[in-house]
Amino acid sequence: MRDFFLIFTSRINIILKSITTMNAVRIASFIFVIGCFLAGSYYIFFRLFNYLIAVEIIGIALMDRVIEMGFFVFFIMLLFSNIITSFSTFYNDKELYFLFALPVRPTSIYLSKLFENCLYASWATMVIAIPLVVAYGVTTEAGFLFYPLSILSLFIYLIIPAALASVLIFVILRLLPQLKTRDVILLAFGFILGLTFLYIKLNNPTILKVFETESEQELLRFAANLTTVGGGYVPSTWLSNILKGLSVNSSQGIFYFLLLFFVSMSTAIFAFFMAKALYAQSWLLIGEHSSNLSKRKSLLTSFRSGSTKTLLFKDILLFIREPTQWVQLSIFVILLVVYIFSLRRTPIYFTFPLWRTIVSFANFAYICFVLATLGVRFIFPTISLEKSGIWIIGSSPLSFRKIIMIKYFFYVLMAIIIIEGLLIFSNIFIKTDQRIYMLMPLIAFFVAASLVSINLGFGGRFPQFDVDNPSKIAAGSGGIIAALMSIAYVGISILILATPAYHYLATTYLHRPSNYPLIYLSFIGFFVFNIFTIVVPLRIGIKALEKRDF
Amino acid sequence: MKTLVIKNLKKKFGTTWAVRNLNLELEPGEIFVLLGPNGAGKTTTLKLIAGLLHPDEGDVVINGIDTRKNPLEAKSRIGYIPDEPFIYSKLTGREFINFVAGIYNVKHDDYEKKMAELFKRFGVGAWIDGFSEGYSHGMKQKVVMCQLLLHDPQLILIDEPLVGLDPKSSKTVRETFIELKNQGKTLFICTHTLSFAKDIASKIGIINVGEMKFIGNLDELSKISGKRDIEEIYLKLSEESVNETIP
């Protein structure tokens, strides 16, 4: 245990040192941005819960349903993100060569790496989960004890997916050490997806059903079902039961808190013993297999005319060859395809065109948020990932302006393909109003151009050349700032566009007098705002790189 | 025209001067070897010339081109290898060379023959087509040595060229440098390998605590130090320079 505390405290010292050596303005802006995000998320959840609790008969049950569904989704997301970061944290980190050469127990290394992995994989979920829990407490007028206990429960909750992901990776690599990173991640995902599918099939959880009735009796039956959602064997149910119990001072809350604590600790102990048996062995086996220098066909030969093509092709090649990159993108794409196809039923649920138009507007906002997430995960790290070649690029006759602009146009193209594709297909399924259908792709073009600029610009302003893993780069302080800036951009854009959307709907469907000057003014405002969000972040990134010492 | 002119170059990290009042002029066909203890300012000097660090004061002029006024034009005349030659781990050595050629706009036909010859000379084997993540330090060093000459630079800057290389490859590097010198190229090398400095240097500089203490050829340094052996010369002069700087 002494070894673990030594490694752990040295890690904490490094984190504290990096914070204390930060520029005061950067710390202040970081705290401000995080604070704004937490406050904004809290406000949205608070409004949502207040709305739900006011719905007669099923209001509270609906709110609990949202909470439980949220925690279930969090659990799956935590499991996925822990798996993605596990491989690089437990096996690919260069620090491991140093640590395994020391007279230190592998379990001590495991525990310190588990903490690191859990931190990187879970921070984003916590930023959403904490405001959700606080908003739930305020809405249900919970007592003071609710807040510390439920937030503590959230932290305990994180241990289960982190420990399970590490065990899964250890078992796969111990049994099949010759597997490449790509295969390990795919196998682990397959396993998790299979389990999730089985859970949904066997438990048939009500949380995933859509309520479709207008009869009061059925409504009551449905409400009664909602109180037993999800089955009692998943940690997300226990966590939501903790919240429900603590909010009404029921002993149920304490019971589920103890249950969650016991299961989390048991999972951690189980993972500890699995690590004791498998970690060091599998790490050594991986080392033996990775020294293989098998011959590959050179793909960078046919694109040798000019620096622009060379840079672009290098970026594409590195992306394709890095499984943590494309596997994550593939999962995103699969989830988005599922989402788009789920919209096919929208015209059946919403027959009145006004509602369909509102749904299409909500869908547009959602797609913008998705693009913001993709931007932080895949575009923000792109400058930091140049670390290996920064000595060659920095000493070559290639300006940082050109490098950034090459990347910018490439990622804008990719972003436009994604956002336009999503919008066109989703609007076809929703059967959106023709004018909105025609206008949205034009607006989406600006959204794509701005989000790429924000993520690339901040990627240049806050690069992390000392980190190899793109997920970790995106999870760093610069990534958090870029994420929050992206979300703020989407929020402001939606607010600006809400005015013309409202007036258009009111004029078209409710036959109210039109207010064209306000509509035009909003569009001009949106255009000016986007010129700012396209130009300024890129300039910030270029200037920062030009001034930087490498 | 002089290949490299450095005037009053200064660089500060926080409150510490990494390089102070550095002045140096190098002619075509010269090999300048910079010696100094760890943390003396050798790598900083090299990075300042390569454009990877911004000087606080002073000028660097390469082939008559001021690096402040026209950095990209100046950079096109240099070839640089750092002390830790990182290569993108998911590119093969061959792909990395092609990447560098693309960055410098060198056409494949112009370097294909040269590369084949360099591969042979440095003993680059079939491993050049494997991912560089599996390379040893020596293998990486060989790859970056090959890419260095792709765009025919006038000024070659190398930090610790022999680290990780086997004796045969070290000899090849030595011969290659002398060949480049004979072609009129200027080489600026930082190293701790004194025998290497003695064998190839036309001029030696000794730097300590950011200041260039002595510049001259081996005979001149021998005269100043009163010693004959390169190791003794270095120890004597670097010791003197430390004593000089202690208040």
TrEMBL record, chain A:
Fetch the InterPro entries from UniProt.
ABC_tran_2 (IPR031599)
Highest taxon, organism lineage: Bacteria
Q: Which organism is it from?
A: candidate division TA06 bacterium DG_78
Q: Which Pfam families match?
A: ABC_tran_2
Q: Tell me the protein's name.
A: Uncharacterized protein
- List all membrane-crossing ranges: 21-42, 71-90, 119-138, 144-172, 184-202, 254-275, 326-342, 354-380, 408-430, 436-458, 479-498, 518-538
**Key words, A-Z:** Membrane, Transmembrane, Transmembrane helix
TrEMBL record, chain B:
Residue ranges the record marks as coiled coil: none
- Leader sequence range is none
What Pfam families has UniProt attached to this entry?
A: ABC_tran
The lineage's top-level taxon is: Bacteria
Kindly state which keywords UniProt assigns to this record, in alphabetical order.
ATP-binding, Nucleotide-binding, Transport
Keyword ATP-binding present in the record's keywords: the answer is yes
Query: What one GO molecular function would you report for this record?
Result: ATP hydrolysis activity
Q: Does the keyword Nucleotide-binding apply?
A: yes
The ABC transporter domain is annotated at 4-234
* Matches recorded under PANTHER family: ABC TRANSPORTER ATP-BINDING PROTEIN ALBC-RELATED (PTHR42939)
Q: What is this protein called?
A: ABC transporter domain-containing protein
Organism listed in the record: candidate division TA06 bacterium DG_78
Q: List the top taxonomic levels of the source.
A: Bacteria, Bacteria division TA06
